[in-house]
Amino acid sequence: MDLVKNHLMYAVREEVEILKEQIRELVEKNSQLERENTLLKTLASPEQLEKFQSRLSPEEPAPESPDAPEAPGGSAV
Q1: Alpha helices, DSSP H only, in 44-66?
Q2: Which domain holds residue 43?
Q3: CA 52: distance to chain centroid?
Q4: Cα–Cα distance between 41 and 28 in angstroms, integer?
Q5: How crowded is the C-beta side of 44, counted as CA atoms within 13 Å?
Q6: First to last CA, the chain
Q7: How would you label 27-47 residue by residue, b for 16+ Cβ within 10 Å and e otherwise?
Q8: What is the pLDDT of residues 4-41, one digit of tens each?
Q9: What's the pTM?
Q10: Does 31 map to a domain?
């Protein structure tokens, strides 16, 4: 029984170390992307920012329309 317990504890510790490394990499990548985003925002002209914001605006209402999946389901009945 102790052998199984030790094996499981070792496997869990190994998995924890892998996950910690992945977290470190993701935090580093996130920081890099945030810095890049800040730099791009400072370098972009007001016209470019406005154009970018206008591109995002049409995408925002899309998640608010849950009626779209119901219509095909209703017509199939």
Answers
A1: 46-56
A2: 2-56
A3: 20
A4: 20
A5: 14
A6: 58
A7: eeeeeeeeeeeeeeeeeeeee
A8: 999 999 999 999 999 999 999 999 999 999 999 999 99
A9: 0.58
A10: yes
